[in-house]
């Protein structure tokens, strides 16, 4: 069986499998070259031939244990009819849903034709992938996608969505429910097309107080998992409630993920005792340690292996790779993990 699927079934691997969040991207010259020919970023996501090629680039170069579908979490608002654009160097732009009337006007169902090219990318990658490499699909968690839909862009503290959730909880809940249902269908489509497992990215889970975290992060992801497993009973699912900290304990006891991806601020003893006893752990190299390289990088990699590799563990970053990261530092990390 593929090493990552072994880990997602709770089995410890002698050498932990490894992949990196955002492993296809701007730190790779071959990505930058292809990105230039593709037109817009969404054109790249929706052109199966190019998206499949970009998905495979980091596999060819580094031999990671997983390929992650090249797409974006904002494909879901796009399917809901929201205009989504990516300005070079500025991040995503959407028409903001900044009052209750706009929220209540959000389409209740998605145009699922939008998902067809993404599923075609999954099928193409699957055909070309070596048999030991896991193909991961993904979506954004409803809360994180909602932060972009409400603000219309990335924000430092996600204040627009947090305020909307306090001020207009019913309208906000309606949007979250729509995202639950569309994201469930999107993940089911990716799994049917050949994804071996899926990851649910809740990048902004860490900004909410506990009761709000339970309502807007835990409950929607629970529902997505229930919907997916109603169709695909043993679907393998990784959760990434970034920044959840001490709430990770509650997250893994209530959300039936096969693995939880953790960021670099998590306390190792707490993760071993309260999290890894229940589910596999993925993570958690600081992307800045990877960028720094040298002895600091070796030390950071060794610490992670010492902390987590005796249990079910997938080596990853604690968040996406930074565009400035030297390729040699990625190679150094893989050697360190694999040649111990
Ligand atoms: O390699 C992979 O991980 C697969 C592809 C992938 C992308 N985005 C490609 C991308 C995945 C899994 C994502 C997830 C994603 N997208 C998240 C969750 C994970 C995270 O990093 O927090 C979020 C919050 C987004 C939304 C998003 N997309 C933002 C905020 C940005 C702009 C910031 C940035 O990094 O540029 C994007 C653009 C984006 N998505 C790029 C890539 C490779 C860069 C755009 C480009 O190449 O022009």
Provide a short characterization of the protein structure.
With 340 residues, the chain is α/β, with parallel strands linked by helices. Helices cover 51% and strands 13% of the residues.
Walkthrough of the structure:
The chain contains 16 helices and nine strands. Helix 13 links the parallel strand 7 (259-261) and strand 8. Helices cover 51% and strands 13% of the residues. With 340 residues, it is of the alpha/beta class. It is globular and about 60 Å long. The protein binds coproporphyrinogen III (CP3). Coproporphyrinogen III binds next to strand 3 and strand 4.
Q: Uncertain runs with pLDDT below 50, 5 residues or more?
A: none
Please, what is the average pLDDT?
97
Q: How is the main sheet built?
A: 7 strands, parallel
| Estimated helix fraction | 40-55%
Estimate what percentage of residues fall within beta strands. 5-15%
What's the β-strand tally?
A: 9
Shape: globular
Category by helix and strand content: alpha/beta
Q: Counting H and I runs of at least 4 residues, what is the number of helices? A: 16
State Rg: 19 Å
Helix-strand sequence = HHHHEHEEHHEHHHEHEHEHEHHEH
The oligomerization state is single chain
How would the blueprint of this fold be written?
Blueprint lengths: L2 H6 L20 H10 L2 H5 L2 H15 L3 E3 L6 H5 L4 E4 L3 E4 L5 H5 L10 H14 L5 E7 L1 H10 L7 H9 L1 H25 L3 E6 L7 H22 L5 E5 L6 H7 L4 E3 L6 H9 L3 E6 L1 H6 L1 H15 L4 E5 L9 H12 L2
Parallel strand pairs: 1-4, 4-5, 5-6, 6-7, 7-8, 8-9
Antiparallel strand pairs: 2-3
Helix pairs in contact: 4-7, 7-10, 8-9, 8-10, 9-10, 10-11, 15-16
Bound molecules: coproporphyrinogen III.
The site of coproporphyrinogen III has 23 residues, from strand 3 and strand 4.
